[in-house]
Amino acid sequence: MPVTESDRELGQRIGQRLRVARHRAGLTQQQLAGDRYTKAYVSALETGIARPSMVALRYLSERLGLPAGHFIDESHPGWTRLEVDLRLAAGEWQSAADGYRTLLDDNPDPAMRPDLLRGMAEALNRLNRGAEAVPAAAEASALYEVAGRSSDAALARYWLAYGLFLSDNEPESRRILGGLLDDVRGGLQVEPDFQVRVLTSMAAVESRSGQHGRALSYLEEARGLAADLDDRRRAMFLFNLAISYREVGDFEAAIRAGLQATALFRAAGAIIESAQVENDLALAYLAVGQVTRADEIVREALRQIESSGDERLLAAVIDTEAQVALAEGRLDDAVALGLSAASHAERSGNELTQLAALRTQARALRAAGRSEEAERRFAEAAAIARAGRVPNRLREVLRDWADLRADGGDHRGAYELTSEALSVN
Q1: Plot region of 82 (φ>0 → left; ψ -120 to 50 → alpha; else → beta)
Q2: Comparing C-alpha atoms, which of 260, 210, 213, 212 is closest to residue 240?
Q3: What is the pLDDT of residues 272-317, one digit of tens each?
Q4: Which CATH number fits domain 5-72: 1.10.260.40, 3.40.50.300, 1.10.10.10, 2.60.40.1180?
Q5: Which of 147, 123, 142 is nearest to 312 (CA)?
Q6: pTM higher than 0.70, yes or no?
């Protein structure tokens, strides 16, 4: 029997709602599959490639604590706007992205569309999926402008610039951010920390372009404005500032800002945010050769994050542990920790951390002389980087991979990888 367009639409709708419900329940695809189905089958359902039988749908819906009708009722939105916004505010980026997409697919009030698009753009950017965020942010900005909502349009343009930056389009990102900075300096009223965020983002663009002097001047201007923010916003600014300093190579400044951010987050009882800062601090200490201090801090971050149950961040912290082990020459530990980080990242859908963990494993395997295994890990990391359209990460992997091949005397293979790295855009 031929598959009709309505069949495909129903399959996609069921799959989307299964995915949203699974994320809300905190289950991996393997856990949802249980002992009756496979992870691959659940994946096929969620992507709309397959449609479940009623037997399968009843089984899966029972495991999710929902009636089967939840997934096939066309009038059921699966999310409320308030719930999705709360997920975004709580840092549950994947759940928020899924929720916004569901609400958009259900054809809400046209007046709500730009708000949903902007929210989805932010969530996608937070997931480092800039190429997907760009069209949503661009449409939101255009709709806000038509409605005369200048402040909201500015926020949408900020996420558009962010997505372009993640897509390695620094010139266009710089142009948009420069225009936003001019607007704010000219009196445009947006959120209290908006100008600080724009300045910090400008610093990141200039840093990646090699203009470190300009980057630092933007950071210092942002620091002067941050004193007027409340403690939590100031903590978040200092966290972003620490990341920016680390990216421009000023690791001492990164450590100072990170320590200040940690203190503020701890005072506010923000466990996850505190752990995020400590993880970044550990990377900064590692970069300046203070390996023992990096080890102490990442262990504290791990202790905090294990109590929160946030598997996405747990994957990142374990990868930092693996990098510390590699720096200390504990190569077997580095390989094992990298494997653990990659597993947590895959289960939580954190592809960027999975990529980073595979790269860490490959570097440790190379150092241990296990070249064939390192070759496989680099190949896996490169495949994720290519599929995820993250050019900067792909360049890093290809360069490390080329060094491995050069070590083994495969100079032609090393040349091919280096050439690909140079051509990535």
Answers
A1: alpha
A2: 260
A3: 778 888 888 898 899 889 999 999 999 988 888 876 667 888 899 9
A4: 1.10.260.40
A5: 123
A6: no
